[in-house]
Write a structure and sequence with these properties.
- This protein has 410 residues and is of the alpha/beta class.
- It folds into three domains: 70 residues, Winged helix-like DNA-binding domain superfamily/Winged helix DNA-binding domain (Arc Repressor Mutant, subunit A), CATH 1.10.10.10; 133 residues, ATPase, nucleotide binding domain (Nucleotidyltransferase, domain 5), CATH 3.30.420.40; 173 residues, ATPase, nucleotide binding domain (Nucleotidyltransferase, domain 5, 2-Layer Sandwich).
- The strands form four sheets. It has a five-stranded mixed β-sheet. A five-stranded mixed β-sheet has the order 12-11-10-13-14, sandwiched between helices. Strands 1-2 form a two-stranded antiparallel ribbon.
- Strand 11 and strand 12 form a beta hairpin.
- Helix 8 runs antiparallel to helix 11.
- The longest helix has 25 residues.
Length: 410
Amino acid sequence: MQGGTNLLKVRDFNQQVVLETIRGASGVSRTEIAQDTGLTAQTISNIVRRLLDEGLVVESGKKSSARGGKPKVNLEINPDAGYALGAQIDRDEIALVLLNLGGQPLRRVRHAMPAGQAPEEVVRLLAKSAKVLIQEAGGVDRKMLGLGVASPGPLDPENGVLYEPPGFKNWEEVPIKQMLQERTGYPVLVDNDAMAAAVGERWVGKARGTDNYAFVYNGWGLGAGLFLEGHVYRGATGTAGEFGHTSLDPNGPECECGNRGCLIRYCSPREIISAVERRLRAGESSSLLYSWLKKPGQLDLATIRAAAIAGDRVAAEELAASGRMLGRAIVGMVNLLDLQMVVLGGKALGEAAYIYRREVEEALRKILYPERREVRVELSCAGEDSGAVGAASVVLHAAYSPRLMSLRSA
């Protein structure tokens, strides 16, 4: 739990700490906030009064004290106090979600990526879809906080520039932030899809109240968004969590990065598809064989996942093998950072995410050091929308979460 300070110069920080405490609880009293944050009762009273006046918080009834005496007034976030749009850009589709301040999705939509992937076409489609979602929701336009964009890296989150993400044609240096701000008129924030998903899980998912965790995002790329000591961690150059090129086997397959046995060579959709196709060519029995022979080269990951769930041995074994390699890499990350939780999400997991969870949990049981540590493994509550939900949450997080950077002197 984030602690506050009673120094006058950090009033805004304290207010964010109190708001975060209220947001993370299902009804909390002023007394409980003081106990959780270390702030004085008078400071809490002043901050809560401001939050009520600004409409960010509402009083939601009373609850009896465990020690008897006067019932305590509960405080909760006012979900209609603000809204944020989130957009995820992936190589084959675009997803948008509208969230309220309470983290509830109000509207969502998906579109196929425009043919040719031209940045200008993508921006036009995003802006048009954002306008439609806002109109459909009704009455939210005046309370819109902004638009968040989640994308595969490499990217510059501060300036909102994408630098040739893998699988994107003609995206050498795209100022997506500027382009969308001009199109929509809203403030725009841009972040890596894994980091955005990590923020989303903190706001609306299973990482609420957890200070040290990683969101492992498996889409067309593979990376981790990190929260350490309750704050987003990006590292010295902003590339923390890029563990897709962690080498797990020096004798493994060569990677495009020049190394061998990188995690991405075992977990990306194209690698899983290739592994299944090799076994089909070798003549192994599988329910996938007929469709593969009928349409060579058109086998996709969704079909493999469905076959695995239906009991196909080849499909299930290849997904499990991918999950085992992911588990090995996660064990190393947990050992290094002493994480409390790992959340798994992303489009590549889909309805077969439970297979990956099982393999990661098994790896943590077998090889985590020291053995007595307990590390939770969870599946993202946002499912395939984790990137878009995360992108919207990035806007909410920037507006209302306490950040130690704000305490630095000007």
